[in-house]
Amino acid sequence: MQFKPKVKAPHPEFVANMQKILQKNELMTVCEAAACPNRAECYERSSATFMILGDVCTRACTFCNVKTGHGVSVDADEPKKLANAIEELGLQYVVISSVDRDDLKDYGAGHFADCVRAVKEKNPDIKIELLTPDFHYDTKALDIVIQSGAYKLAHNQETVRRLSKSVRPQSDYDRSLKVLEYYAKKSHLRVKSSLMLGLGESENELRYSMRELLDVGVSELTLGQYLQPTSKHHKVEKYYSQEFFDAIKEEAYAMGFDAVASGILVRSSYFAEELGR
């Protein structure tokens, strides 16, 4: 039986306004690039995860719908454009993410920090969550991000150890754990990560990965059903029920996580402004 998740129908006015402001400022959102099923609902709440450093990723993860190839030139005016758009949208909480930029000397860490500073200068009371790549575990790059003035730091583990190499061939499971541990130990900030379900993991593998994330200092976790973007991407091996997501959420809390979002359509930045309040 084909899985047909239900998503909220978009309100044309909210979607059109969001897209107009994004286009005017030449900005990208992960919502559009990754074909997120929640983008209409989030736009209606004037919420979005902004994607900086272009729309072309230098890695080719088998689950991801973002374009891959050689990185595009970095727009030096992007921090200012981002700050202007966020002010115009009247946002109080934003998530800033990026494609992987393995072609850049600092992997894009300095641009992340520039964006945070520009946004906070124009919107001083805003809270900014950074959803970052692994920066190849370059601690200088990680320190730049930690010292940027962000409110929360996130990096997605995405899947369990056994599947990591096939799902994220240019990334590394243990390197991601080290990045999350560095964030947790070197900053006073909340640290968040995300796992997709349905890629072929067993339930015990899922629980083990959750435990590993908790052990390195991750305090907030999101769990969601993987949905195959196109026939060329990693296929869905299993669809989980909402009852399972509810049950695994309770297990996560029992393990010791401070905040958990778990559901079929939950994504790493879904209702980010509410998680951990």
From TrEMBL:
Its EC number is 2.8.1.8. It catalyses: [[Fe-S] cluster scaffold protein carrying a second [4Fe-4S](2+) cluster] + N(6)-octanoyl-L-lysyl-[protein] + 2 oxidized [2Fe-2S]-[ferredoxin] + 2 S-adenosyl-L-methionine + 4 H(+) = [[Fe-S] cluster scaffold protein] + N(6)-[(R)-dihydrolipoyl]-L-lysyl-[protein] + 4 Fe(3+) + 2 hydrogen sulfide + 2 5'-deoxyadenosine + 2 L-methionine + 2 reduced [2Fe-2S]-[ferredoxin]. Pfam families: Radical_SAM (PF04055). GO terms for cellular component: cytoplasm. [4Fe-4S] cluster 2 binds at C57, C61, C64. It is found in: Cytoplasm. Its main location: cytoplasm. It comes from the Bacteria. One of its GO terms (biological process) is protein lipoylation. Pathway: Protein modification; protein lipoylation via endogenous pathway; protein N(6)-(lipoyl)lysine from octanoyl-[acyl-carrier-protein]: step 2/2. Gene3D superfamilies: Aldolase class I. Its cofactor is [4Fe-4S] cluster. Signal peptide: none annotated. Coiled coil: none annotated. Binds 2 [4Fe-4S] clusters per subunit. One cluster is coordinated with 3 cysteines and an exchangeable S-adenosyl-L-methionine. [4Fe-4S] cluster 1 binds at C31, C36, C42, S269. One of its GO terms (molecular function) is metal ion binding. Keywords: 4Fe-4S, Cytoplasm, Iron, Iron-sulfur, Metal-binding, S-adenosyl-L-methionine, Transferase. Residues 43-258 form the Radical SAM core domain. Belongs to the radical SAM superfamily. Lipoyl synthase family. This is Lipoyl synthase. It comes from Sulfurimonas paralvinellae. The gene is lipA.
